């Protein structure tokens, strides 16, 4: 049975990846900070699907913890066939007004950890001649929505470069770029999303299902839903000045306090 390692597996998209991968017959290594949530999920998946589930508690903003996850990925005696780099978080504050320590943590979790874990997994997979890496990016990587866009732009371009390098060796890399997804992400970041049209919201199950299907196809960039495929097409074609203007307006609306009525 193939084994998948999922970071940020205790909630949101990460939890959905764990559930769907177990349903597809994978054994799992679940990585997150919250042992309680991980243990409950591991028990549920073992009972429902018969998967073997390993729990690995790690805060990916801590370099030593990231190193332990990388060691697990590189272990030749316990091969990981699919790495899902999902861990991440957002902030409702702009870069300048925000806490610099939080921005540094974001780089550790969503840039450095993605790089380190991809390096460990890719090395082991290349040696075996098979495997796949799925990096969770965002439609924001094509936009200009603060530091988060810059971070996700790295993830998207890094994944494309990695896919090119690994292609001759039987290993694939895919960046999934969803838009707004119904998870705990925005609530945890204290973002006011009340003004966002329903048509722009995606279901977590649909995003995960679509991206896993694209991994199976060897697709390098996966954009779930025709709505966001159109958005990405427009963002790629639009003058960057216009992109900056629209993104600034949207960001201001998201950060504005909610006033009933």
Rounded mean pLDDT is 88
Instruction: Give the biggest sheet.
Output: 7 strands, parallel
Within CATH, the superfamily carries the name: NAD(P)-binding Rossmann-like Domain
Strand content: 5-15%
Strand order of the largest sheet: 3-2-1-4-5-6-9
> Which H/E pattern describes the elements?
EHEHEHEHEHEEHEHEHH
Question: Residue share in helices?
Answer: 40-55%
CATH architecture: 3-Layer(aba) Sandwich
Question: What is the 3D form?
Answer: globular
Tally of alpha and pi helices: 9
Uncertain spans: 189-193, 256-261
CATH C-level category: Alpha Beta
Structural Rg: 18 Å
Number of domains: 1
How many runs of DSSP E, i.e. beta strands?
9
Q: Decide which structural class fits the backbone.
A: alpha/beta
Distance between the termini: 54 Å
* CATH third-tier fold name: Rossmann fold
Describe the 3D structure.
This protein is an alpha/beta fold and 261 residues long. It has one domain: Rossmann fold (3-Layer(aba) Sandwich). 52% of the residues lie in helices and 15% in strands. Strand 5, helix 5 and strand 6 form a beta-alpha-beta unit. The longest helix is centred in the middle third of the chain and has 29 residues. The protein is globular and about 50 Å long.
Tag the structure with descriptive keywords.
two-stranded parallel ribbon; 9 helices; Rossmann fold; globular; alpha/beta; disordered C terminus; 261 residues; seven-stranded parallel β-sheet
């Amino acid at each position: 049975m193939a084994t998948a390692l999922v970071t940020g597996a205790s909630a949101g998209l990460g939890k959905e990846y764990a559930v769907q991968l177990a349903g597809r017959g994978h054994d799992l290594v679940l990585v997150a900070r919250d042992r309680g949530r991980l243990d409950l999920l591991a028990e549920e998946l073992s009972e429902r699907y018969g998967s073997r589930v390993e729990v690995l508690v790690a805060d990916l903003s801590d370099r030593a913890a990231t190193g332990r996850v990388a060691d697990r990925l590189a272990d030749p005696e316990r091969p990981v066939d699919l790495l899902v780099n999902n861990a991440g978080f957002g902030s409702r504050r702009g870069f300048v007004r925000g806490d610099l320590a939080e921005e540094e943590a974001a780089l550790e979790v969503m840039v450095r950890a993605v790089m380190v874990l991809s390096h460990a997994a890719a090395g082991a997979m290349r040696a075996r001649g098979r495997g796949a890496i799925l990096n969770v990016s965002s439609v924001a990587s094509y936009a200009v929505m603060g530091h988060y866009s810059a971070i996700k732009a790295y993830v998207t371009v890094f994944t494309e470069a990695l896919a090119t390098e690994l292609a001759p060796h039987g290993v694939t890399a895919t960046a999934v770029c969803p838009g707004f997804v119904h998870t705990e992400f925005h609530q945890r970041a204290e973002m006011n999303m009340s003004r966002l049209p329903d048509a722009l919201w995606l279901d977590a199950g649909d995003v995960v299902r679509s991206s896993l299907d694209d991994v199976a196809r060897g697709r390098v960039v996966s954009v779930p839903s025709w709505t966001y495929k159109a958005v990405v097409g427009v963002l790629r074609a639009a003058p960057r000045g216009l992109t900056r203007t629209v993104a600034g307006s949207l960001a201001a609306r998201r950060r504005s306090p909610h006033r009933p009525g």
